[in-house]
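Lab notebook page, bench 4
Experiment: in silico fold of construct C2
Operator: M.H.
Input chain length: 214 residues
Purpose: comparison with the prior construct
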Amino acid sequence: MINTLRLFYFDTTKGNSTALKILVKELGFGEALGLSLTLKWRLFYHNPFKNINQHKRPTEQEKLSQRQMAPMVILYELLIEKGYSKKYIIELLQTLSNSVATAFLKFNVPIIKREDYIDLPSEQKLGLLTNITKRFFNAEATLSLDEKDNFSFQVNHCHFASYSHTLGHPDLATLFCASDKHFFDEYQDDIVFFRSQTLATENKPCDFRFTWKQ
């Protein structure tokens, strides 16, 4: 329940306005307003996850992932219907995804500071990182630490990647992956982020690895 409330608060206070500003800047006020109104209508009457949920009742994580994804899925489809080029759509949605995802992750995921982390007992380190992984609603991951205090998350299932393929829009999965990387590269100042593979592109577990900057 707390995660649902946090997501609702973010969407209401930050997420929706961030997305609208980008659409207005890129498409103009009239086009952005029309898309936003149509998007809201489709969310209510033609939600892209309706058929999926009729066959399987979603878990809380799945509901949260669907709520985060649905506007992007609908916007992608609307832009295609309006005749925008695939290249332009991907570029626009990547800009939008980076901005909204970064705002959400800054709101929902604590910034990890080396000075606050390094002297903690191992159990507390593990507890801190476990709590952080729970803030990623879309991911089912296992966590590990090494002897140098570096840590890694292996994402064995990603609802974003899975749903993107199920809905027939695999390009969206790579957008979400790129937004994760953008957040860690730009806003987690004390750590270096590395990932050699993803569920979205190689269909292999995402191997998030983090080392401390020297």
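Observations: The longest strand covers residues 151-158. Residues 2-27 form the longest helix (26 residues).
Next step: discuss at group meeting.
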